[in-house]
Amino acid sequence: MTSAVLPALLLPLLLALAACTEPGGLSAPAGGIYAPGPSGAPDVDGLIVGHRLMAAGEAELALAAYGRAAAARGLDVDTLSAMGSANLRLGRLGQAERLLRRAVARDAGFAPAWNNLGVVLMETGRAAEAAESFRRAFGLVDGGDDMIRDNLRRALAKRDDAFYAGPQETGEFQLVRRGVSEFAVLSAL
């Protein structure tokens, strides 16, 4: 008989103890109905995420990440240049040019933005203006960047010979990331 009485006494006791807990039980979220993010972990910079996405060939997603970076840190030369590069990769040359011109207006000493502007200008057939952009980028790095030097060489050759069609070049330029926010032009040689 004691074995039948014990569960009958324990059940009301357990129910009374359960009523003493906070509403929602032990697993209720503290701030709402959504799962919490990583506690104490800093957010990843949108520029870093965007650069990784550009390297993976995901320019549309990179542009969204650059937009989040711009919202978090403002439209500085890094975000403007990165957004311009993503637009260039997407073939949006007008938007890319506007963003890159804003970047060089904000910081005329930022060589990657000048280089990327030169890429846009080459893509739009303005070799003389592109050569000037590459010349500025080349001067800013004190001639220490082989990629910018090659870009300048190609732009000068195309500017000086209106009918320039390099025997080994296809004319297709490709933007690649170098460093934190540097991009350079590569062509299929």
Description:
The protein is 59% helix and 6% strand. It is mostly helical and 189 residues long. It has one domain (45-187): Tetratricopeptide repeat domain (Serine Threonine Protein Phosphatase 5, Tetratricopeptide repeat), CATH 1.25.40.10. TPR repeats lie at residues 111-144. This is Tetratricopeptide repeat protein. Residues 1-18 form the signal peptide.
Summarize the structure.
Residues 1-18 form the signal peptide. By secondary structure, the protein is mainly alpha-helical.
Q: Helices and strands, in N-to-C order?
A: HHHHHHHHEE
Helix content bin: 55-70%
Number of strands: 2
Count of distinct structural domains: 1
Gross geometry = rod-shaped
CATH superfamily: Tetratricopeptide repeat domain
Instruction: Summarize model confidence as the mean pLDDT.
Output: 81
Strand content: 5-15%
Task: Note the gap between the termini.
Answer: 94 Å
Structural class: mainly alpha
Tell me, what is the CATH class?
Mainly Alpha
Number of helices: 8
CATH topology: Serine Threonine Protein Phosphatase 5, Tetratricopeptide repeat
Q: What radius of gyration results from the CA coordinates?
A: 29 Å
Please tell me the CATH architecture by its name.
Alpha Horseshoe
Strand order of the largest sheet: 1-2
By oligomeric state, this entry counts as: single chain
Contiguous runs where pLDDT drops below 50 for at least 5 residues: none
| Main pleated-sheet profile | 2 strands, antiparallel
